[in-house]
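Please check the following.

. . .
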Amino acid sequence: MCSAARAFLIAAGIFAVCLLHTEAANAQQSRNPNVTAFLANPAQLLQQNPEGGLKLTDAVQELALADTSTFKILLGLLGSANDLQKSAIGAGLAQAAKIEVLTDQTVAADWQQQIASINDPSFKMAATNSFGDVKIGALGGSPLGGTGTGPGLGAPQATGSAQSISSSGVATGTFTITSSVGPASSPPASPAARVSP
């Protein structure tokens, strides 16, 4: 193979590697928020999402998970956020806490406590809905640290001791079903249905 063809193949290979690296970097950047830009101007996140919604919820979740130092800054945005934005922030931070528990339970429990300390109704409702019945850390009570009694809240109720699978079963009372419905009577034949001799 001549040296020109070899040089061309090497250049093409280098170009392909650079192109793949650039595409991978762009894909990575699109998955992770630009934390530096957020930290430089946190209020811009609210300006870009005046209606709150899923886009803001996702951005909040991604920012919190990409850099744990953004969590308190995101909470700080509540002072200038409208109700829709507060709901989106509450949902995003709660979802981030649910994911963070998989990698750092201490941080997730701290986030849960910080979320629980917020008394704004829009924020609190969205966070509670996002937590569902997930309890993070050893806080006990509801997912937001309270002692609620609704579905998914409060301590689990005792149901008795476990029964061995090989046991003879649980005795139950007998029951019978009696019918109070008698046989159906036939409706009288209509005059048109009668046959004359």
Notes: Helices lie at 3-31, 35-40, 43-48, 53-66, 70-76, 83-100, 105-116, 121-131. Residues 1-31 form one domain.
